[in-house]
Every structure is written in structure tokens, then in C-alpha cells.
Amino acid sequence: MMEKLHPFHVSIMIYMNQSGVIALILPRLFASNYGYNGWLSLAFFFAVSILNIYLISLVYHYGQGRSIFEILEASLPKFFLFPLYVLLAALWTLIGCFAAKQFVFIFQMLDFPTTHPMLLKLLLDILAFSLVIKGIYSISKATTVFFWLFVWMHLLVIYFFGEFQWVRLTSFVFQGETDFVQGGFDIYSAFLGLEIALLLLPYAEKNKKLTRAVYIGNLMSVLAYLVVSVISFGVYSLEQLKRQQYPVLDLLSYIKLPFIERMENLLFAFILFPVLVSVVLYTWASVLALKRIAPKADTNWLAFAALAFSFGAAWVPDVISEVEMLLKYFSYAEEGIAFGLPLLLIIVLLFQRKGHTHA
Amino acid sequence: MNDSGRQENKEPNMQPSMEYAMAELRNCADLNHLKLPEIGVDFVYFGHFIGSQEFTREISEPFTHIRADEVDQLLKRTIYKPITESQSLIKAILSGEVAVFHGSNTYSVKAYDPKSRAIEESQTESVIVGPHDGFVEEVEVNVSLIRRRVKSSHLKVIKLEIGELTKNHVYVMYINDVVNMEHVNELVHRISGVEMDAVFDGNMLVQYIEDNPNSIFPLFISTERPDTAASMLAEGKVIAILNGSPSVICAPASFFEFFSSPDDYYQRWPVGSALRLLRLFALFMTLTLTPIYVSVTTFHYEMVPETLLLSLAQSRSRVPFPPLFEAILMEITIELLREAGARLPTKIGQTIGIVGGIVIGQAAVQAGITSNILIIAVASSAIASFVIPSYIMSSCIRLVRFPLIILAGLLGNFGFMLGIGFIIVHLAGLTSLKNSYLTPLAPSNLKDWGDIFIRAPFSMLKKRPFVNQSPNPVRNKMRK
């Protein structure tokens, strides 16, 4: 019997895929783009992400257990689909690639100024490869363990209760320099990762449970972002938040225990796990897309090719600002995919239903 | 193909005879041949397999009091089993039976009673509270030790043979309606498929039948304790006992089950739970202490608080080696001491411990070869590794530490986390009899956490562990 993904694991995969370095930057994005109490805008982004999941749930509903590739291939010609698959595979690989490169750059900045970042990236890619080739069920198991190794970090907020002051939140809402539109696109990149749910349908239990699991995973991310953002706004002033590149990392550096202090680099190392999950899931997704183009190709070789392409692409940006810029543009594209792909699928499915009814 | 199989092909219908037996077992100096020419009876057997008193009393003595015409009458007794095939004759003699020849008729009679070790406490799995008997090398004794604890008609035993040369017996045991029969069939299939001339120990057998024999982690539990084996059966696992080995193997197993000890169930539940948590903390300590030391002293000195930094710097200032080399040196020394202690007799082993632990440790610090903080880290992680109840898992965890130390020495905290990532990825791909090795963490089964991370009160442990996929998951119900 084929193993099925339990809804609990789907929630965790969605949460871990959404989490990552973006959580360290998010308070700055809120402060820079939405001004005072910018964290309140999280409610709006949450609503948008719910809409996004709703579109995915419609695909589940109308698709009746079929994979997105089967749905598309039933109605659209291959000369249209194959370039689309190549684009999707490239985009998913590159998002994972630059998320990893960003993580590696920050680590290099913190601890290894003389080490070549591509060496660190190579090791991360080898680890990702060893997981991707094991298949989605093993990926979900490893993700669950990574989740437990990562999620405890949220308890660290307790340390900041003493520093937190309500007065720093001020009584102003969305005042100061703001850029709602572009900032909105930047912030929504924190919710990217949920679109992977589109690909999980053939591997998961019933549609309804899967949809609920995606909602729960997304809610977990929102709660985590909320805690991090509120704490950041209550500990730092707005101007401080705008100037800090990684405000959450700076927060972590305050944590002191009797036998250890300046824990930010140790704690940052734990972010390896969500970053790894993102790389693995996006690579897995791109392998799925490539497999439709070359069904006879060995999955391991496709994973190797995707990660080799990712490794090659990671040589392009030399500094962290370039990586962040590239990641930003690819995130915009992925936001388009996150909404566009379900919409395309729904349209195709509606046509299929219509055709079926007429027949 | 085995020997008997060869004979079958060569001489399938050959009548058993003494000449055949003597020819087949020629040059076996340990073979006994007792002749009673006055009544025309011969006994052929291996003397060390049988109880000599029982042989005299039950087998040879009755023949000395009868006449030649009464032999046929005596051989009608049910203890004498007629043998009609030559291959069965050889097999019976090799299995410790006595072959009786009278005219053209051949019989075998059971008198198997070899000298064996008495039932003693297991040296590797000692407990403070609870039963103190342990498995021995005799499979019948081991099966009996389990039957004494599980007096149920549902306890079933399948007898298999393994080793083309050794023809050793393996008994697969399970409780019907509690075990998942897919597990039983799979285990029987795997054991039957082993093609090897000799398999001597349960831990050796495991390496032929595990899902991933190349993994460093043990995928089947092995135990020398009958109470543990019986509890595994009751939980819905299937066990296999190899003749000649005191290690009984149990499957399917999960990674976390290697950290529980029978002691946990014999103590009050809060104490049992504390012990479980202590062992998991020990796992954490043994994996992290030395790598973190290496990582911090190589790359992340800023993580050390000022008060501790002074003593650390002072202690490290005399050491001419990088922390990675220093740590590897001390870890290897500790492993040497452990191995020497294990190989030597107990009293000398203790002396080695004292000489190694105190004298070499102290001298190494004074000579400036290592820092005393590293000695503390290495010794603490070694002690923590011994807290893990399964010796095989403990050895494996100690070995896994080395790549972690090397990665931490090369890439600091990043390398350490990368190493942890590799371990988890490897564990995620493992299965035991096709069940996830990381159960109940992944796939998560929160109900089982009460018997994995703690030892919840018995009133809460109503269900059999998920990993066993029992068709009868509730423990207090038994299908009739």
C-alpha cells in the first residue's frame, strides 16, 4: 500500500517551507513599508494567504485527487505545457537556490569571513540532495524532526518579556514613510511555500483534511510571524527597526545564559533546518515538473541536475545584496505562480467539467 | 543447497543403514558407537549431545536385560521413531538423537541434553529492580523462559533452519491476533532467504535481515532479557531466537525504543519518566558536548561568558594543538580505554579505568596536551553514552560523534548543524520491517509519546505502540 502524508505532516511541511531567513527580516519589512505598528498589516496578508489556499482547495475539489500535471495535460497541448514546466522547474530551483545562498551569506558574515560561501552552499546542497532522492514520505519525516528542532526557538520570546514595552508600539498605525504596494509584495514572500500544497494532493489523505492541514500550517507561520514582529516592535523603536538588516538576529544576540552568551550564531544555525526544507521541497517540486518532460529519466539524476543547476546559479551573485535582490524578483514571480497556477488549473478544470457535462 | 539436499538429489530413496551412517560420519572422532552383538543392536550417537545418565537408564540399559527375540517388542515403544530415509538418519544424529540399528531397521531416540550455561543475569542489560534471569545459548531454554512468562495458546512458534553448514535453528515467536502477520511473514521470508554458511549470533543474523544492513544504526532490538522479550511480544512485536545465541532479536523497532529499559516499568512512573528523560538528555549530551566545545573554541569564542572565558583561555593557552586535534585525540583515548576495559577481566578492567581516567587525564592536562575543560567534556559525553541502555545503540552513537566533531572543527556551528541534518536525513530514510524508524516522532503519533519520552502511568498506556501496527491495538482486550 502506498504511504500517505498525514495532515499533521502537511501542516509542518507548509510551516517549515514558509519559515526561514525571511522571519529574521520581517519586522524590518513591516517597519519600512507600513510604518508605525506595521505588524498590524499581518492580518491583511493572512487574509490574502487564506484566499490563496482557498484557490488551491478549489483545485483539490475539482481535480478529484488528480495531480496538477494530469489536470493540465488532459486539456492543454504539450508544446504549451513543456515550456511552462521548464519555467516552473527553473523558478522553483532558483528560489531554493537563492534562499540557501542568502542563509549561507549571513552565516559567512557572522562567522566565516574567509571561507568561500560556495563551499558552505555545496555542503547544504549535498544534504538537500541526500533528502530529495528519498522521496516525499521521507522528506516529510525528516521535516517533522527538523520542525521539533526548530520550533522550540519561539519560546525564546519569553526572554524579551522584560525588555518589551507597550509604549514603543505607540498609538500610530501605518504612519511614517510607507510603501504599501511594493512592500506588500515583499512581505507576502514570507507566505510563499504554501503553493507547494498544489503538488501534495496525490500523496496526501483526503482532500478536506489536506486543505485543513494547509490552513493550519499557514496559521502556524502567521502566529510565529506575529510573535516575532510584536516583540521586535516592542523592543526596538521604529527607526531602529528600519536600520537593522536582520532585527531578529540582533534580538537573539541579547540572550545570555550563565554558561553561554552571544547565542545568535548558534541559534541562527537552527535556521538551517527550515532553509533546508525549502530547498528540498522546491527541488522536489522541480523534479516532479521535469519528470513530466522526461518521464523515463532517473529521478535521482533529475534531482542531481536540478541541484547542480542551483549550485551553478548560486555562483552568479557575489554579495548578499545581490542575492536578496534576485530573491526578491524571483519571489515576485513565485507570488504570481502561487495565484496564477491555481487560477489556470481552476479554469482548465471548469472547462473539463463543462466538456464532461456536455458529453 | 545444503548437505541433506545434495544427498537427496544423489540418493533419494536410499535405505538408512549403519554402514551408511558410519561412512557419512567417518573421521568424526567424537562419534560414539555402542555395540550389543548378542542381541544384534547398535547405537550410534554423539556423546556430548546426550545426557549420559539418561542414555544409560532410558536407552542402553533396557536392551541389556532382554533376549534377541524381544528386541522387536522393545523397539515398538513410542520413544523409538522409525527412520526410513538415509538423510533423516544423518540429520537426527547431528541433532543430538541416538540412532538405533537392529537388523535392517533403523530408529532414532531423543536423548538431547548437552551441557550448557546455567541461567544467569545478563551482563550487558543489568537492572536494579525486576527479574534477574537472562537468556542462554540453548534455544529450548530460551523458548521456555518466554513460555513461562506468556502462558497463552496465542503464543506461536515457527522453527526455521539457517546456515548451510551450521544448520542452526531459529525460532520465530509471536502472539497471534496481537502481532501484525505481515511482520511475521516478512521476518520468516527474510530469515529463510539468508544464504550463508554460518550464522552464530542473533546480532549477526540481524545484519542479514535488516531493512538497511549498511546503516550504522541498529534497526532491530536485541535483548538478553526474557522479560523484555516477553513484553515485546505482548506489545505486538515478532521475535527471533537463534540457537547458540543469548541475543534475541525483536522487530519492528523504532529509534526511541533503544532508550528505554525494563527498569522504567518496574519503578514508580515518575521515577521511570525521569529516567527516560535523563537518557534522552544523555543522548543530547553525548552528541553535542565535544562538538560544541570544538566549535566554540575554534570559531565562536564570543559565546563564552567572560567569567568562564578566563579559565577556558588559561586552560587552552598551554595546548599547542587546534581544538579539533585535541578533541579527536582525547576521544580516541577514551575509546581505547573503553575497549581495553571491555576486553580485560573485570578487575584489570577497573584498574585500566582508574589508570586511564585519572592518571592519563591528569598527566595530559599537566603536560599541556589537552585542556582540562575538554577532559570534562569528553568524560561527561562518554559517561552519558553509557547511560543508553542498548550497548549496540550506545556504540553507534559514540561513533556518530566523530564526524560531528570533525564538522564542528571545520565549520563551527554550521558544520555541527549540518552533521545533525545528515543524521536526521539518514534516520528519516530508515525502516524496520518496513515501518518508519522514527515513529512516533515522524510520523508523529502523540499518543505513543507517553511511552517514549516519558513512562506514563500504566492507566494511560492502554494501547500498543503504533510502530507494531497491531491488529489489536488496545492492550486490555484480547480476541478469543
Characteristics of this structure?
A: about 350 residues; mainly alpha; Amino acid/polyamine transporter I; two-stranded antiparallel sheet; 16 helices; about 70% helix; B: alpha+beta; 3 domains; 5-stranded antiparallel beta sheet; about 45% helix
What does the secondary structure layout of this molecule look like, with pairings?
The complex is a heterodimer of chains A (359) and B (480).
Chain A: H1 7-18, H2 22-34, H3 42-63, H4 68-75, H5 78-110, H6 117-132, H7 136-151, H8 180-188, H9 197-200, H10 207-235, H11 238-243, H12 247-252, E1 256-257, E2 260-261, H13 264-270, H14 272-293, H15 299-313, H16 320-358
Antiparallel strand pairs in A: 1-2
Helix pairs in contact in A: 1-7, 1-10, 1-14, 2-8, 2-10, 3-10, 3-16, 4-16, 5-6, 5-14, 5-15, 5-16, 6-14, 6-15, 7-14, 14-15
Chain B: H1 3-10, H2 18-24, E1 31-36, E2 41-46, H3 52-64, H4 71-74, E3 81-82, H5 86-94, E4 97-102, E5 105-110, H6 139-147, E6 155-162, E7 168-175, H7 181-192, H8 202-209, E8 221-223, H9 226-235, E9 238-242, E10 248-251, H10 263-266, H11 269-298, H12 306-317, H13 323-343, H14 346-366, H15 372-387, H16 391-428, E11 431-432, E12 435-436
Antiparallel strand pairs in B: 1-2, 2-4, 3-5, 4-5, 6-7, 7-9, 8-10, 9-10, 11-12
